[in-house]
Amino acid sequence: MQLRPRQVEFVDACVGNLKEHGNTLGIAPTGAGKTVMLSAVAKAMGGRILIVQHRDELVSQNRATFERVSPNTPTDLYTASRKRWSEGATFTMVQTLSRPDNLATMPAMDLVIIDEAHHVAARSYTDIINHARAINPNVRLFGVTATPQRGDKKAIVRVFSNVADKIELGELIAAGFLVKPRFFVIDCDLEEKLKQAKTSTDDFNMEEAGVIMNSQVVNDRVIEEWRKVADGRKTVVFCSTVAHSQDVMAAFNAAGILANEVNGDMPDGLRKSVIEDFDKSKFTVLVNVAVLTEGWDCQDVSCVILLRPCSFKSTMIQMIGRGLRKVDPERYPGVIKSDCIVLDFGYSVRAHGTIEVDSKLNKEDLATGIAPTRECPECGVTVPLGSKECPVCGKCLISDKTDGEEKDKLSAFVMTEIDLLSTSPYKWQEIFDGAVVMANGITAWACVLRYKGTWYALGRIDGSTKVRILAASGQDERMEVLSSADDFLRNFGDKDACKKTKRWLTEPATDKQLACLDLGGRINFGVTKYMASCMMTWKYNEARILDAVTDFHLKTIKRK
């Protein structure tokens, strides 16, 4: 498995900080490939490793990803159903391992990795960390999270003294790994009242905010604006309180729009059932209070409504991120998603500005050997030099003037497209005068094409007869489907045989290849071995490719 260039940067920074400090925190949003990166960090550090998760379904998922990243490292599980310690990497549930009788069986660890590290304040986590340190005082600690500000700041700083790297949501959107958001900030003349709902400079009193936001006038305006720009889109709504959430749900249903609601007071079984029904599209709008901010993945959501203020930019980004996932065509047949509409009634986007990429280090800084970090004056944690906001406590680290300039950009979200083709380890070859873009990874291939106004990415693994639809997006979104195709090859292609530096990629096609292609009157001059291999791959798979695309197209029409 081959990491994206940005993932490699993240891993290198985390490994460097672990070796220097003995602990570090890495921050990465949904879509960054957090499990891939923590697996690569574990592989680079070596030794005996413990990976701690807080949800049962993550244990087997993370183990499977780890084994693709580090296939030669032995793994095992320490869970309720299987209690085995591996000499390599052991994956565990925090609820299981934190029990005293289970902790007593733990061998000395060289590295402990905490997934969703903002939960580290919980007693179960501290028990595991303290026990690991008692056995081996030199054990290193690595945490990964998308939302450090959602945890106890003091507890996080006690465990992690520094932030090695922070991947911004804007980077992933620019690279095509997430869909683009379209922002609509709606002013209901409540901004001054909401400011009064702050109990301190840092946080809002959500009960007071709920009273302010929860009125018939505002709820009617929500539905009016939703119908203007997002009518029919699968939508998730974030509210301030349970009463607010239930009233918003009732307003949608009264307007003839099927809606349901989940909150933390509901029984687990009922909440799970409602979420499953939403995933199956049994209703259009799902309203919630602090339930769907993390650990929830419904890829065909294409509208997010913010009906609560956000003290921290990371909380706002986490909520917006629920709608930015690209759609897996196998999980959602016939669904095409090119963007996500964000309707902000809580002034969060106006308060925090854009979600563009934070400023990067200057080459001069690196050349002079200046440490690319700074210390947050509020919580004392060491953070990357380019950070505009402390990832842990939310302290603004830039001047008011610069901050204001950033906020002014929110109305026109413009993202510079990253040149994925130049950063890919594979050579993407245009064939048939650019109608198809294909890359051959020997053990897998992938291609990108446009059919009836929609961009498609398709691929097949060697030994399989099935051509898979990897992504489908709108007519102007080739980058999104190309990124899915490139990720597919990074997972399943031969990383050595098809490197761009390999000589055979530029050598002239063989006579056998040209005879097989039978190009007729077309000039064969300039056809390389690699181009010929891509054209032959298309030739032998054309029928399957077209069948897959037309079948998906028909499913799309039926959904409409």
Q: What is the gist of this entry?
A:
The protein has about 550 residues and is of the alpha/beta class.
Which helices and strands occur, and which strands form pairs?
Elements: H1 5-21, E1 23-27, H2 34-45, E2 49-53, H3 56-69, E3 75-78, E4 89-93, H4 94-97, H5 100-103, E5 111-115, H6 123-135, E6 140-145, H7 153-159, E7 163-166, H8 169-174, E8 180-185, H9 191-196, H10 206-213, H11 216-229, E9 235-238, H12 242-254, E10 259-263, H13 268-279, E11 285-289, E12 303-306, H14 313-321, E13 339-344, H15 348-352, H16 363-367, E14 373-375, E15 382-384, H17 400-407, H18 420-423, E16 429-431, E17 436-440, E18 444-451, E19 454-461, E20 468-473, H19 478-492, H20 511-517, H21 529-559
Parallel strand pairs: 1-6, 1-7, 2-4, 2-5, 3-4, 5-6, 8-13, 9-11, 9-12, 10-11, 12-13
Antiparallel strand pairs: 14-15, 16-17, 17-18, 18-19, 19-20
Helix pairs in contact: 1-2, 2-3, 11-12, 20-21
Keywords:
single chain, 560 residues, 6-stranded parallel sheet, 7-stranded parallel sheet, Rossmann fold, 21 helices, alpha/beta, 20 strands
